[in-house]
Amino acid sequence: MTTILTDSDYARAEQMLAPYRARKVPGCALQPQWLADGTRFWYQVGPRYVVVDPAEGRRQDAFDHDALAAALSVASRHPAAGDDLPISAVEIRDDHTVRFSAFGTRWEWSDGSCVPSEGAAPVPGEVRSPDEQWVAFRRDGNIWVRRCESGEEFALTDDAEPQFDYGGLPDTTGARALMRYLGLPPPMILHWSPDSTRILVQRIDQRDLPDLVLIESSPPGGGRPVEHRTRYTMPGEEAVATMTWNVLDIGKRTVVRQQTEPTPIMHNVALVYAWWTDKDTIHFLHHSRDARTLELRRLDPASGALTTLISETGQTRVDPVVQLGDPQMVRVLDSGEVLWWSQRDGWGHLYLYSADGAQVSQVTSGPWLVRSLLWVDEATRQVWFVANGLVDDDPYLRQICRIGLDGKGFTRLTDDDLDHDAVSPPEGGYLVDRASTSSRPPRSVVLDGDGQLLVELESPGTETLDALGWRPPERFRTTAADGKTSIYGLLWRPHDFDPQRRYPIIEHTYPGPQIYRAGPSFDPPHQGEPEAFAALGFAVVAIDGRGTAARSKAFHDHSYGDLGNAGALDDHVAAIRELGHRYPWLDTGRIGITGQSAGAFAAARAVLMYPDFYRVAVATSGNHDNGVNLAMWAEHYHGDVSAEGKAAISNATLAANLKGKLLLIHGELDDNAHPYMTLRLADALIKADKDFDLIMIPGAEHALIGRQHYFLRRTWDYFVRHLHGSEPPSYRLAPLPLPSLGG
């Protein structure tokens, strides 16, 4: 018997979406903000601000919230309450001064007094110097600085040209359409020297790149459609953006440029993985265009001379980190030695290079991998790190470990079945650890270097979620399509679960391969959307098949040269079939799949590759033809950019296989996975005389910010109608809160 869904079901599902879900479990996403003294930090939990002194073992309010609210109410003539302070862009300083924005004004709270502040609020697109005396910003493609005390401004470069400027990002990864929608300047990346006297900044040359033209059909002001051009290199094309490093001296107002020829730049990681090792030395990671060579280079900021210290080459991609965008895992020690992360032995381990590079020794080893690097104590010659693969039941569980740089004294500081997401302050000394499971929110604590408890921070519960019918997901292990490899995922039971009923299944997918999807923590990526489907009466699965990150090199490389298999879709089919045998209440005759971006490619791919298995698919912002997608996607993660290789990663080639229901959703201004990829799939489906559904969203970019409520509701309706077997209610979702970017 089919249950008819009501407005209240949709309203309950809406409350499961990430922005609302997060508010119901405050304290989950704890983000330490290190104070300048290097030993203390503060964070926000709900409406409260907390400061922590690990050395004293103390956690307390960062300030008197009620007193600040009372003083702010008097000074601003607007009511404010301590348990719901209307403040933003908060800065808490070592001297207990608090600066914040409220009611259109910048304020300073100190010694019980709240007065307008002379200092400006942090501005998106500006970067403050470590000594807080200067602010760097972009103007007309050049780098400028402003003295905070006097407001004096001057340019450090004056030769920027269109598509040949300083501090920006390549168009293909710059999220220009999103920034326009949010009314923010284009993102800027630069690196201040520790002594605040110089700036390391890139100059990117996109002048010879081909244009990709996007048309805004319905501009806010009306009138003719508006053309937006973006520089966009596709796989195998000769022209690619190049960059040079430049060192700008604030006092001398000089520019020192790298001495070598410009180098290709395929992604933003090349800009992020650069740092001042000290005030006179710069190091950065350099990837070849095909990503098969990774080098550590040193730049002399006085002369621009470049020296290659380490070069590693592989038959497939040589990754600098476990997941794309993770913090770099290189440490250049005061001795000149280099601690280097590599997958050369088939896993992901630390290696120590001598200062002259002549000797290298392996620091960690075994059938597991170093997941992140925390800190190195050069005095004791020890390194702290987070590792995957040490817990037999789940190779994705992270544990905190320590080892000597000589490879001796390996110690697990945590030895449990929890997932530990740990960070440390820049100078090390202690750990802020968030330990959770798929069903248990993080317990956040501060640990010392021996793993001993220093301070309890937060231990939120799920009572508010439980009251809405929320059910925690089950962590599961099944066998891949090869019949031997264990793969892992998450299973959400429907709200009001009844084991005597049969429930349709929705797979919520993202196949990487640059990340993994279904982690064992309480808040994996895309949290909320699976829970919303469960609230609508669906069973939901998320699966990490072979070819995704965070396990062995061989496991990850399963997708190299086979990106078209979308994270081993055959593994996903095998997993769902096994779950169907395990749980009779799963209706494996009614299976749907949905995803966004690469998840949309996988969703459409699934209904085309396995038309007798997946009956319904919704694909949003999909890169359906990777042969015309971002060049780095095919070149780094597929490797074969021949005509045959590109055809193998296009969904259009499988259009004739469609049997079930397919909804394609795309924003017309998507400058990441451009809308023409969805239209190419639509063209192929039309040529194959196949029925499908298509929603093009005017003015929307890749993430569909501002329109998420619409595409989510249409997605829910599609599955309710075609998989659940009933007509959806008339309920309309409210626009989701905009992301918090900048100050």
Defining key terms:
743 residues; alpha+beta; eight-stranded mixed beta sheet; six-stranded antiparallel beta sheet; 32% strand
Q: What is the rounded distance between the termini? A: 52 Å
Q: What is the number of helical segments per DSSP (H or I, 4+ residues)?
A: 14
Q: What structural class is derived from the secondary structure elements?
A: alpha+beta
Low-confidence runs of at least 5 consecutive residues: none
User: How many beta-strand elements?
Assistant: 44
Please give the share of residues in helix: 10-25%
Label the overall shape.
globular
Mean pLDDT: 95
Largest sheet: 8 strands, mixed
Query: How would you write the strand order of the largest sheet?
Result: 37-38-40-39-41-42-43-44
How large, in whole angstroms, is the Cα Rg? 26 Å
Strand content: 25-35%
